[in-house]
Amino acid sequence: METLTTTPFTPWASLFGGVLIGLSAVMVMGLFGRIAGIAGITNGFIGAVLPTPGAPGDRDWRVAFLVGLVAAPLALMLAGGTVQQTVPVSLGGMAVAGLLVGLGTALGGGCTSGHGVCGLARLSPRSAVAVGTFMAAGIATVFVLRHVLGA
Amino acid sequence: MRIAFGFLAGLVFGLGLVISGMSDPAKVLNFLDIAGTWDPSLAFVMGGATVTAFLGYRLVWRRPAPAIDARFDLPTNRRIDGRLVGGAALFGIGWGIGGFCPGPAWTALPLFAPGTLVFLPAMLAGLWLGAHGRSLSLPTLKGSVR
To answer: Which UniProt keywords apply (chain B) (predicted)?
Structure first.
Protein backbone atom coordinates (compact mmCIF):
# COMPACT_ATOMS: atom_id res chain seq x y z
CA MET A 1 0.00 0.00 0.00
CA GLU A 2 0.91 3.61 -0.18
CA THR A 3 3.29 5.25 2.23
CA LEU A 4 1.87 7.30 5.08
CA THR A 5 2.52 10.86 4.05
CA THR A 6 1.32 13.56 6.40
CA THR A 7 -0.25 16.49 4.57
CA PRO A 8 -0.56 20.02 5.99
CA PHE A 9 -3.96 21.35 7.04
CA THR A 10 -4.87 23.99 4.40
CA PRO A 11 -8.28 25.42 5.28
CA TRP A 12 -8.00 28.63 3.23
CA ALA A 13 -6.60 27.12 0.05
CA SER A 14 -9.13 24.31 0.33
CA LEU A 15 -12.01 26.70 0.88
CA PHE A 16 -10.92 28.85 -2.09
CA GLY A 17 -10.52 25.80 -4.33
CA GLY A 18 -13.90 24.57 -3.17
CA VAL A 19 -15.52 27.89 -4.13
CA LEU A 20 -13.97 27.56 -7.62
CA ILE A 21 -15.46 24.06 -7.94
CA GLY A 22 -18.83 25.46 -6.87
CA LEU A 23 -18.55 28.30 -9.41
CA SER A 24 -17.83 25.80 -12.16
CA ALA A 25 -20.92 23.81 -11.15
CA VAL A 26 -22.97 27.03 -11.33
CA MET A 27 -21.48 27.79 -14.79
CA VAL A 28 -22.48 24.35 -16.07
CA MET A 29 -26.02 24.81 -14.68
CA GLY A 30 -26.36 28.40 -15.92
CA LEU A 31 -24.94 27.70 -19.38
CA PHE A 32 -25.96 24.12 -20.17
CA GLY A 33 -28.63 23.44 -17.55
CA ARG A 34 -26.79 20.33 -16.40
CA ILE A 35 -25.30 18.79 -13.29
CA ALA A 36 -21.49 19.11 -13.24
CA GLY A 37 -20.87 15.49 -12.27
CA ILE A 38 -17.49 14.33 -13.51
CA ALA A 39 -18.58 10.67 -13.70
CA GLY A 40 -21.52 11.68 -15.92
CA ILE A 41 -19.37 14.02 -18.01
CA THR A 42 -16.80 11.23 -18.43
CA ASN A 43 -19.63 8.94 -19.50
CA GLY A 44 -20.36 11.42 -22.30
CA PHE A 45 -16.71 11.15 -23.37
CA ILE A 46 -16.86 7.34 -23.36
CA GLY A 47 -20.08 7.50 -25.38
CA ALA A 48 -18.21 9.49 -28.02
CA VAL A 49 -15.72 6.63 -28.42
CA LEU A 50 -17.67 3.42 -27.71
CA PRO A 51 -21.36 2.53 -27.81
CA THR A 52 -22.47 3.14 -24.21
CA PRO A 53 -26.05 2.70 -23.04
CA GLY A 54 -27.46 5.79 -21.38
CA ALA A 55 -24.52 7.99 -22.36
CA PRO A 56 -25.57 11.64 -22.74
CA GLY A 57 -26.01 12.98 -26.26
CA ASP A 58 -24.52 16.47 -25.78
CA ARG A 59 -20.91 15.39 -26.01
CA ASP A 60 -19.39 18.60 -27.32
CA TRP A 61 -19.18 20.58 -24.08
CA ARG A 62 -18.51 17.46 -22.03
CA VAL A 63 -15.37 16.57 -23.98
CA ALA A 64 -14.29 20.25 -23.85
CA PHE A 65 -14.87 20.24 -20.07
CA LEU A 66 -12.56 17.24 -19.66
CA VAL A 67 -9.89 18.96 -21.78
CA GLY A 68 -10.23 21.95 -19.43
CA LEU A 69 -9.79 19.67 -16.41
CA VAL A 70 -6.58 18.20 -17.83
CA ALA A 71 -5.34 21.67 -18.83
CA ALA A 72 -5.81 23.10 -15.31
CA PRO A 73 -2.64 21.70 -13.64
CA LEU A 74 -0.62 22.61 -16.76
CA ALA A 75 -1.93 26.19 -16.64
CA LEU A 76 -1.04 26.40 -12.96
CA MET A 77 2.50 25.14 -13.60
CA LEU A 78 2.94 27.55 -16.53
CA ALA A 79 1.94 30.37 -14.17
CA GLY A 80 4.79 29.32 -11.87
CA GLY A 81 2.76 27.32 -9.38
CA THR A 82 3.52 23.83 -8.12
CA VAL A 83 1.12 20.91 -8.21
CA GLN A 84 1.41 18.82 -5.05
CA GLN A 85 0.65 15.18 -5.71
CA THR A 86 1.52 11.82 -4.18
CA VAL A 87 -0.11 8.93 -6.04
CA PRO A 88 -0.21 5.43 -4.46
CA VAL A 89 2.47 3.21 -6.01
CA SER A 90 0.73 -0.17 -5.91
CA LEU A 91 -0.33 -0.62 -9.53
CA GLY A 92 -2.52 -3.62 -8.74
CA GLY A 93 -4.25 -1.60 -6.04
CA MET A 94 -4.76 1.32 -8.43
CA ALA A 95 -6.25 -0.99 -11.09
CA VAL A 96 -8.78 -2.37 -8.58
CA ALA A 97 -9.45 1.15 -7.25
CA GLY A 98 -10.10 2.57 -10.73
CA LEU A 99 -12.43 -0.27 -11.64
CA LEU A 100 -14.42 0.13 -8.41
CA VAL A 101 -14.65 3.92 -8.79
CA GLY A 102 -15.90 3.58 -12.38
CA LEU A 103 -18.36 0.76 -11.64
CA GLY A 104 -19.58 2.32 -8.42
CA THR A 105 -20.21 5.78 -9.87
CA ALA A 106 -21.98 4.27 -12.89
CA LEU A 107 -24.27 2.13 -10.73
CA GLY A 108 -24.78 4.77 -8.05
CA GLY A 109 -25.39 7.46 -10.66
CA GLY A 110 -22.81 9.96 -9.46
CA CYS A 111 -19.54 10.73 -7.72
CA THR A 112 -18.08 13.29 -5.33
CA SER A 113 -19.15 16.14 -7.61
CA GLY A 114 -22.47 14.88 -9.01
CA HIS A 115 -23.91 13.54 -5.76
CA GLY A 116 -21.58 15.50 -3.46
CA VAL A 117 -21.40 19.11 -4.60
CA CYS A 118 -24.32 19.33 -7.05
CA GLY A 119 -26.69 16.85 -5.37
CA LEU A 120 -26.26 18.35 -1.92
CA ALA A 121 -26.69 21.85 -3.37
CA ARG A 122 -30.02 20.68 -4.82
CA LEU A 123 -30.93 19.22 -1.39
CA SER A 124 -31.47 15.82 -3.03
CA PRO A 125 -32.15 13.09 -0.44
CA ARG A 126 -30.87 10.49 -2.92
CA SER A 127 -27.54 12.32 -3.14
CA ALA A 128 -27.33 12.72 0.64
CA VAL A 129 -27.65 8.93 1.01
CA ALA A 130 -24.98 8.40 -1.67
CA VAL A 131 -22.57 10.86 -0.02
CA GLY A 132 -23.05 9.32 3.44
CA THR A 133 -22.47 5.87 1.95
CA PHE A 134 -19.31 6.62 -0.04
CA MET A 135 -17.81 8.67 2.79
CA ALA A 136 -18.43 5.84 5.25
CA ALA A 137 -17.08 3.25 2.79
CA GLY A 138 -13.99 5.37 2.10
CA ILE A 139 -13.26 5.92 5.81
CA ALA A 140 -13.79 2.21 6.56
CA THR A 141 -11.53 1.18 3.67
CA VAL A 142 -8.67 3.46 4.76
CA PHE A 143 -9.09 2.28 8.35
CA VAL A 144 -8.83 -1.37 7.34
CA LEU A 145 -5.90 -0.82 4.96
CA ARG A 146 -3.88 1.39 7.30
CA HIS A 147 -4.77 0.27 10.80
CA VAL A 148 -6.03 -3.31 10.55
CA LEU A 149 -3.88 -4.76 7.76
CA GLY A 150 -1.07 -2.24 8.35
CA ALA A 151 0.43 0.04 5.72
CA MET B 1 -19.36 28.79 -28.06
CA ARG B 2 -20.47 25.59 -26.31
CA ILE B 3 -16.99 24.19 -26.62
CA ALA B 4 -15.29 27.35 -25.35
CA PHE B 5 -17.59 27.59 -22.33
CA GLY B 6 -17.29 23.86 -21.67
CA PHE B 7 -13.51 24.19 -21.67
CA LEU B 8 -13.66 27.23 -19.39
CA ALA B 9 -15.93 25.48 -16.88
CA GLY B 10 -13.61 22.46 -16.87
CA LEU B 11 -10.57 24.69 -16.40
CA VAL B 12 -12.16 26.45 -13.39
CA PHE B 13 -13.21 23.09 -11.92
CA GLY B 14 -9.70 21.69 -12.42
CA LEU B 15 -8.03 24.74 -10.88
CA GLY B 16 -10.36 24.33 -7.91
CA LEU B 17 -9.37 20.68 -7.54
CA VAL B 18 -5.64 21.43 -7.69
CA ILE B 19 -5.68 24.57 -5.49
CA SER B 20 -7.90 22.90 -2.87
CA GLY B 21 -5.63 19.84 -2.63
CA MET B 22 -8.44 17.50 -3.65
CA SER B 23 -6.33 16.45 -6.64
CA ASP B 24 -3.66 14.96 -4.32
CA PRO B 25 -4.49 11.36 -3.36
CA ALA B 26 -2.29 11.65 -0.25
CA LYS B 27 -4.49 14.48 1.00
CA VAL B 28 -7.70 12.58 0.19
CA LEU B 29 -6.49 9.43 1.96
CA ASN B 30 -5.46 11.48 4.99
CA PHE B 31 -8.90 13.10 5.03
CA LEU B 32 -10.42 9.62 5.18
CA ASP B 33 -7.90 8.46 7.83
CA ILE B 34 -9.70 9.77 10.89
CA ALA B 35 -7.85 7.38 13.20
CA GLY B 36 -4.40 8.26 11.86
CA THR B 37 -2.78 11.15 9.98
CA TRP B 38 -6.10 12.99 9.67
CA ASP B 39 -6.16 16.12 7.48
CA PRO B 40 -9.61 17.77 7.66
CA SER B 41 -8.88 20.17 4.74
CA LEU B 42 -11.24 18.45 2.31
CA ALA B 43 -14.22 19.25 4.50
CA PHE B 44 -13.51 22.88 3.53
CA VAL B 45 -13.46 21.93 -0.16
CA MET B 46 -16.83 20.21 0.08
CA GLY B 47 -18.25 23.00 2.23
CA GLY B 48 -17.05 25.82 -0.04
CA ALA B 49 -18.16 24.04 -3.21
CA THR B 50 -21.59 23.00 -1.92
CA VAL B 51 -22.51 26.38 -0.40
CA THR B 52 -21.36 28.19 -3.57
CA ALA B 53 -23.37 25.83 -5.77
CA PHE B 54 -26.40 26.06 -3.46
CA LEU B 55 -26.47 29.86 -3.73
CA GLY B 56 -25.51 30.02 -7.42
CA TYR B 57 -28.08 27.40 -8.48
CA ARG B 58 -30.84 29.47 -6.92
CA LEU B 59 -29.66 32.52 -8.86
CA VAL B 60 -29.50 30.79 -12.26
CA TRP B 61 -32.80 28.92 -11.71
CA ARG B 62 -34.57 32.29 -11.68
CA ARG B 63 -34.06 32.37 -15.44
CA PRO B 64 -36.50 30.35 -17.54
CA ALA B 65 -33.74 28.45 -19.34
CA PRO B 66 -29.94 28.05 -19.30
CA ALA B 67 -27.95 30.54 -21.39
CA ILE B 68 -26.92 28.30 -24.28
CA ASP B 69 -29.15 25.23 -24.00
CA ALA B 70 -32.87 24.61 -24.33
CA ARG B 71 -33.81 23.80 -20.74
CA PHE B 72 -32.62 22.81 -17.30
CA ASP B 73 -32.16 19.05 -17.29
CA LEU B 74 -32.12 17.83 -13.70
CA PRO B 75 -32.05 14.23 -12.49
CA THR B 76 -35.61 12.98 -12.03
CA ASN B 77 -34.72 9.66 -10.42
CA ARG B 78 -35.54 10.00 -6.73
CA ARG B 79 -35.31 6.34 -5.87
CA ILE B 80 -33.15 5.33 -2.91
CA ASP B 81 -32.44 1.67 -3.56
CA GLY B 82 -29.81 -1.03 -3.36
CA ARG B 83 -28.23 0.08 -6.60
CA LEU B 84 -27.65 3.61 -5.29
CA VAL B 85 -26.25 2.42 -1.95
CA GLY B 86 -24.29 -0.48 -3.47
CA GLY B 87 -22.81 1.72 -6.18
CA ALA B 88 -21.87 4.43 -3.70
CA ALA B 89 -20.28 1.80 -1.42
CA LEU B 90 -18.18 0.35 -4.28
CA PHE B 91 -17.14 3.88 -5.24
CA GLY B 92 -16.18 4.63 -1.62
CA ILE B 93 -14.05 1.49 -1.37
CA GLY B 94 -12.22 2.39 -4.59
CA TRP B 95 -11.80 5.98 -3.37
CA GLY B 96 -10.32 4.69 -0.11
CA ILE B 97 -7.85 2.44 -1.95
CA GLY B 98 -6.67 4.85 -4.64
CA GLY B 99 -7.40 8.30 -3.23
CA PHE B 100 -8.84 9.35 -6.61
CA CYS B 101 -12.42 10.18 -7.47
CA PRO B 102 -13.21 10.86 -11.16
CA GLY B 103 -12.27 14.59 -11.33
CA PRO B 104 -8.82 14.31 -9.73
CA ALA B 105 -8.05 11.28 -11.89
CA TRP B 106 -8.33 13.60 -14.90
CA THR B 107 -6.31 16.49 -13.42
CA ALA B 108 -3.58 13.99 -12.46
CA LEU B 109 -3.24 12.77 -16.04
CA PRO B 110 -0.67 15.34 -17.32
CA LEU B 111 1.68 14.53 -14.41
CA PHE B 112 1.93 10.93 -15.69
CA ALA B 113 2.34 9.14 -12.34
CA PRO B 114 2.31 5.36 -12.98
CA GLY B 115 -0.57 4.91 -10.53
CA THR B 116 -2.65 7.46 -12.48
CA LEU B 117 -1.92 5.80 -15.81
CA VAL B 118 -3.30 2.54 -14.38
CA PHE B 119 -6.21 4.09 -12.47
CA LEU B 120 -7.71 6.21 -15.27
CA PRO B 121 -8.17 3.47 -17.91
CA ALA B 122 -9.49 1.12 -15.21
CA MET B 123 -12.00 3.81 -14.19
CA LEU B 124 -13.12 4.29 -17.81
CA ALA B 125 -13.55 0.52 -18.14
CA GLY B 126 -15.54 0.44 -14.89
CA LEU B 127 -17.82 3.26 -16.03
CA TRP B 128 -18.44 1.53 -19.35
CA LEU B 129 -19.14 -1.83 -17.70
CA GLY B 130 -21.38 -0.14 -15.16
CA ALA B 131 -23.37 1.58 -17.90
CA HIS B 132 -23.92 -1.81 -19.57
CA GLY B 133 -24.81 -3.54 -16.32
CA ARG B 134 -27.28 -0.80 -15.55
CA SER B 135 -29.05 -1.10 -18.89
CA LEU B 136 -29.11 -4.91 -18.79
CA SER B 137 -30.69 -5.38 -15.40
CA LEU B 138 -33.22 -2.56 -15.56
CA PRO B 139 -34.34 -2.15 -19.19
CA THR B 140 -37.63 -0.53 -18.18
CA LEU B 141 -35.82 2.35 -16.53
CA LYS B 142 -34.03 3.25 -19.77
CA GLY B 143 -34.02 6.98 -20.30
CA SER B 144 -35.07 7.86 -16.80
CA VAL B 145 -31.64 7.37 -15.30
CA ARG B 146 -28.95 9.88 -16.04
So the answer is: Membrane, Transmembrane, Transmembrane helix
Q: Which residues in chain A touch residue B112, judged by CB atoms under 8 angstroms apart?
A: none
Containing domain of residue A16, as a range? 11-148
> Nearest Cβ partner of A109 from B66, B87, B109?
B87
Interface check for B15 against chain A (CB to CB < 8 A): the answer is yes
CB pair distance less than 8 Å for B6 and A134: no
Q: Decide if A6 is inside a domain.
A: no
How many domains does chain A fold into? 1
Interface mutation target, options B37, B38, B52, chain A, most CBs of A under 10 Å: B52
A2 belongs to a structural domain:
no
Looking at residue A150, its pLDDT comes to 79
Residues 6 or more apart whose CB falls under 8 angstroms from that of B144 comprise B76, B77
Q: What is the DSSP letter of B21?
A: T
